[in-house]
């Protein structure tokens, strides 16, 4: 069910894909609940359990510590232990910053496009670079918002290679990752060009009790004036969590190393993406095969060997059982 923020004149709604987080009113803590209602300053307002929510635009950033899927973990208990709000804000910011970079967190840019928060575009001091738009920006790791955009000059040696790869890589991402985002970063060290391509795609289906995320990082380095092959290294990370009446998780990591033919910028980009596509398709197929085998072996072994009567059912003589007679009569 779509819910709207309870704050006065706020139009935020918890629709799928929104970057704004939503918090339920703390009905389990009457004192905090009273403070929330007073802070809203809405005359005759009474929150409704299960439907009233506030969006993150009206919640102090010191309240939020980490986001996993659609769940927000409060740092209220940590605050009691530390008894130092300044230390808590500093520690939470560092922890969430490291988490966001590991998760390749998507960030909406000024022009409406998306980039990724990673270690590869981290300039330090809370600033990141989006090479596609040639801008740097300050990123709030707690609110997941970009601001303070500034012009950025790309690396002259590697930029043309990055642009060629980005063109091919974004087309690949659009074809294979419906809700995903990708980014390509580059730098040079001496005469060596280093290219890094990242993909992040996720589905957070809290209403259906499951969340999932795909991340992949592909890196290569080569001398653009040389000829021959380079090494393309990939790191695939898959997480799936299903938690309806149970707790089933999949966490898979795969390291890949392939040869990359270095030619022209366009040809190298095409071979790069072709290699990525083949490797990621193989990984998808392997996981699907593993789950099929899991259903046919492991899960089957967990089933009850005998019915509650402690007697095996002779399926060939099903008609002799009462249920078989009932079915036959129908």
UniProtKB/TrEMBL annotation:
Query: Zinc as a keyword?
Result: yes
Q: Extract the SUPFAM superfamilies matched here.
A: Glucocorticoid receptor-like (DNA-binding domain) (SSF57716), Subunits of heterodimeric actin filament capping protein Capz (SSF90096)
Which Gene Ontology cellular component terms are annotated? Answer: cortical cytoskeleton; F-actin capping protein complex
Q: Which UniProt keywords apply?
A: Actin capping, Actin-binding, DNA-binding, Metal-binding, Zinc, Zinc-finger
Question: Does the keyword section mention DNA-binding?
Answer: yes
Write down the Pfam families for this protein, in alphabetical order.
F-actin_cap_A, THAP
Q: Name one GO molecular function term.
A: zinc ion binding
Q: Name one GO biological process term.
A: actin cytoskeleton organization
- The domain of life is Eukaryota
Q: How does it assemble?
A: Heterodimer of an alpha and a beta subunit.
The record's function comment reads:
F-actin-capping proteins bind in a Ca(2+)-independent manner to the fast growing ends of actin filaments (barbed end) thereby blocking the exchange of subunits at these ends. Unlike other capping proteins (such as gelsolin and severin), these proteins do not sever actin filaments.
Q: Which family does it belong to?
A: Belongs to the F-actin-capping protein alpha subunit family.
Q: What is this protein called?
A: F-actin-capping protein subunit alpha
